[in-house]
Amino acid sequence: MRFHIDSRYLNDDVVVLGTSVFQDERGFFTESFRADYFAALGLPTEYPQDSHTHSRAGVIRGLHFQHSPPMGKVTRVTSGAAFFVALDIRKDSPAFGKWAGLEVSAENKKQMYTPPGFAFGYCVLADDTEVLYKCTSIYDPKAEGAIRYNDPDVGIQWPNGHKWIVSQKDQNAPTLKEWLQLPIAATLRV
């Protein structure tokens, strides 16, 4: 099988995928998605939306999630490098409030599947970094949520060496504790 599970995190729900890469003097070829292989690995095969970002080194995006309909994501880096983070925000999960981080790059060609019920974000480690997302539902701005990237209770260990560039929206996101006090958090089921 060309896709394989490289590792699992947070109660085995966050999955890091590796893929076969065929390389020669011309460059390389790899498959980034195949429904039959994803199904065999127990991953979703329906992705009605793809998204694409371009960022410079030092940018932090996230931690973002969508609660209705819940959104899972398969993310990969096609140029540059980023440190991906998944935070479990499922209140009934044994891994609630825990995070996992992984460096993903154009060179290592890893992908991270973050299921619904997780907040996802990343910091960019190299200029001209591009991240592609396959999303399990269509983006709805009325249903988006965020957890502050530097919530001290969560304690994400972002890589050192950058003066972070963070949007005003992400800087003002609630902490996990603050988010749990919001009315929408009481109704969230993923």
CATH topology: Jelly Rolls
Corresponding CATH architecture: Sandwich
Question: How would you describe the shape?
Answer: globular
Report the average pLDDT across residues.
92
Give the low-pLDDT segments.
Answer: none
- Termini separation (Å)? 30 Å
How many domain modules?
1
Structure description:
By secondary structure, this protein is mainly β. The protein has one domain: Jelly Rolls. 11% of the residues lie in helices and 42% in strands. The protein has four helices and 14 strands. The strands form three sheets. It has a six-stranded antiparallel β-sheet, with no helix packed on it. Strands 6, 8, 9, 11, 13 and 14 form a six-stranded mixed β-sheet that branches. The longest helix has 6 residues. The radius of gyration is 16 Å and the shape is globular. The model has no long low-confidence stretch (mean pLDDT 92).
List keywords for this structure.
190 residues, mainly beta, Jelly Rolls, six-stranded mixed β-sheet, 11% helix, 42% strand
Topology, element by element:
Elements lengths: L2 E7 L4 E6 L2 E3 L2 E3 L5 H6 L8 E7 L3 E8 L6 E7 L1 E8 L10 E7 L5 E4 L3 E7 L4 E7 L8 E3 L18 E2 L1 H4 L4 H5 L2 H5 L3
Parallel strand pairs: 6-14
Antiparallel strand pairs: 1-2, 2-10, 3-4, 5-12, 6-11, 6-13, 7-10, 7-12, 8-9, 8-11
In short:
The chain has about 190 residues and is mainly beta. The chain has helices spanning about 35-40, 170, 175-180, 185; strands at about 5-10, 15-20, 20-25, 25-30, 50-55, 60-65, 75-80, 80-90, 100-105, 110-115, 120-125, 130-135, 145, 165.
